[in-house]
Amino acid sequence: MKTLIVEIIEPNRLGELMTASRKFCDQPDIVAIGTGDIPGSYHVAYQTQECIGANLTASLGDLIKTNGYEIVLMSATTLGASIAGPLAILLSASIITEATGITDDSMIERPIYGGKAVARYKADTWPLILTIRRKYFEKDPLNGQTSSIPLPVSAGPVKLVTEKIEKAEGVPLEDAEVIVTGGRGMGGAENFSMLKDMAGYFPKGAVGASRGAVDEGWVSPSLQIGQTGKIVAPSVYFAIGVSGASQHLAGIANAKCVVAINKDEEANIFKRARFGLVCDYKNVIPEIVRALREES
Amino acid sequence: MHIAVLAKVVPDYAVPSSDFELVDKRAHAKYTRMIGLYDENAIETGVQLKQKYGASLTVISYGRDSDVPILRKALAMGADRLVLIQGESDDAYTLATNLKLAIEKLGDVDMILAGQQSADMDRGLVHGLTAGMLGYPFIPQVSRISSENGVWTVDQIMENGVREMSVSGKAVFSITSVPENVPRIPAVRDIFGAKKKPVEKMASVSGNGACVTETSVEIPILTSVCELIPVDDPGVMAQTLLKRLREARYL
């Protein structure tokens, strides 16, 4: 099926989309957003620097209609959320968002009810607009590069005023092998420093937070893990003072091992955990840090 | 200025996975129903903008008659009136079609807010479809909104930072949660006052459908068995935990 990927030039996102595209075609086309070389081998590559979804929709609609694309693939990110709905209306297209799996017979799986259930869908008409959730598809290595032709984009309704990119301290959450996450049970912003200490002892360690901790204003929203935050897949996920709401668990479904530390032995997080410590985190985190320090 | 907030009543999203049951591919009717997780952030944002700009604030919901008492919370928070579109479809296109009709019927809506994602179907889609049907610009994951001379300036939370953007005229914004829009708890007098605020009901229309067929809904089997590590001696506990993680090759 004729497939178009629409994504910013970022190898992890592109690699996951390339893997998803193989369910529909051998070699997709791409609209690559941003500057620089486009990693991976595409049949045709278009490129634009316009990064605001609302300004891209019309041009994408023209391109998809003109070339008869049947599948339009995007990551379920801010950009994907910006484009998917309005584009579906423009094209009278089928649409499925937040896919976590595609079967060999092109059935699309996606979680509902905060990940407490999984629904399967099939598209009835084409084109199909499909956004895929991050970290659910293996990254394709993206061999080679593809030279691009410019995608003409007319001036759109939205103007970019400023953009503040947060410099991630250390490893980005999506790439971390060990994540130390604090929830509302941390009790305050100042207590996250011990989580940073602990994460720092792991080669690819990072600190995350639950929505509760973000809503309290203790950490930046960019650290939020969960269905509507970052989707992560570390080897070890330390959940500290995290209750384990299903929306949070949906963001760590692909974590290999969850270690729950919580005073409340009834906390839902223990049902997802491989190892559990029923205690006050303030008593045990310093000991874990001490043990890691002695080993290093 | 007239602000409309799209809000949906959903089954209790705090029900743990282990207690969750389906009936006919949907959440069991026994669960308490409540306003969606992010929809309350959108209502709070709407109330703050109403207070700042002297706007009127209408909440629009697609759902059942029995949702009205739950939606009165939005009126108690500060919304002026409620429009309920009576329907029971889960289809995103159908919802968007009906929301568009309700917005057009109101006639003078300047800005539409919605939570970034519902807590039942989890699509994060209906607001974008509604914007597309209305022909309005759509900006998702917005954390702050201000208005000056007919221009909206918004902050959008991205995966790696914050983007400030401006847009003129009518627009649809989906709202994410930030400390500044944590939903207020209505005062008792506002809860009583909400009972006197107007509720308008509209019959729904059938939409064209999202052109997808739902073939199955299942509850995934949870296989994790938690091994509790004794914490009598925190030092021993730390050593034991790290040893067990290494034995299992997680570290």
Task: Give the helices and strands, then pairings.
The complex is a heterodimer of chains A (296) and B (251).
Chain A: E1 3-8, H1 11-21, E2 29-33, E3 38-39, E4 45-48, H2 53-67, E5 71-75, H3 78-91, E6 94-99, E7 101-102, E8 108-112, E9 117-123, E10 128-132, E11 145-146, E12 149-150, E13 158-165, E14 178-182, H4 192-199, E15 205-209, H5 211-215, E16 236-240, H6 246-249, E17 257-262, H7 269-272, E18 275-278, H8 281-295
Helix pairs in contact in A: 2-3, 4-8
Chain B: E1 2-6, E2 9-11, E3 22-23, E4 26-27, E5 33-35, H1 37-53, E6 56-63, H2 68-77, E7 81-86, H3 92-106, E8 111-115, H4 126-134, E9 138-148, E10 151-158, E11 161-168, E12 171-175, H5 188-194, E13 199-203, E14 212-218, E15 227-228, H6 234-247
Parallel strand pairs in B: 1-6, 1-8, 6-7, 7-13, 8-12, 9-12
Antiparallel strand pairs in B: 2-5, 3-4, 9-10, 10-11
Helix pairs in contact in B: 2-5, 3-4
Mean pLDDT of chain A: 95
Number of helices, where a helix is a run of at least 4 consecutive DSSP H or I residues of chain A = 8
Uncertain ranges of chain A? none
Compute the separation of the termini of chain A in Å.
52 Å
Q: Roughly what fraction of the amino acids of chain A lie in strands?
A: 25-35%
Give a short synopsis of this structure:
Helix content of chain A is 26%, strand content 28%. By secondary structure, chain A is of the alpha/beta class.
